[in-house]
Every structure is written in structure tokens, then in C-alpha cells.
Amino acid sequence: MRTPAGTECALYYEDFARGRNVQECRAAREAGSAAWRPEDCAACPVPAVLAANGSPWLAVTIRIPNKRFRTRRRVTATFACSLHGVPLADPNIGCPRCNAEADDLLRAAFE
What we know:
By secondary structure, the protein is an alpha+beta fold. 20% of the residues lie in helices and 22% in strands.
């Protein structure tokens, strides 16, 4: 779905049909994180990673710091592979174990 910032994100949800006014981010939040606001989508790294990594086992956790005096909040995200339980160093590439398994399946298919 298109976010208020104009990017596509699978974790964003909105519903304005028949008088409803629902906007939410369905990514998991770290404990102690501030409440999500639609303005946070402008600085969120998640849509770019979801566009680059199509893994169904990609687990996303966002953190929005509680800063009262700054007007612009920065959203940070951590990514992990929920299949192998491995935190991802480069979420654009994905899980090294999943990639190795996919390479093995591809090699077996061409043999």
C-alpha cells in the first residue's frame, strides 16, 4: 500500500472507507519505542528494503526514539531471518543461509 510519504510498503495499512480513519504501521516495535505517526514514513528505511528483499521470512522490527525536543524523528529498523533466526547484516541481500539453500536448489534443478 502507498504510504503517506508516497512509497510502497507492505507493512503500512490505511482504511478511509465509509467514514473510517485508520492509519497504522504493522511492523513490530521494540519495547520503549514511541507511538507511530504517519509522518514517520518519510524517514523509514523499511519500504526500500522490502522492495529489494522479497524473502517471506524477513522479520522487521522498528524503533522510534522518544525525543521531545527534536521535530523530526528518525525511524531505525532491524531485520532478521525468522526461518534461521539470524540477524541480517545487509537486509537488501537477505539471509546468507537462505541464499545458499536457494543456490543449491537451483544447481540441483539444472543437473
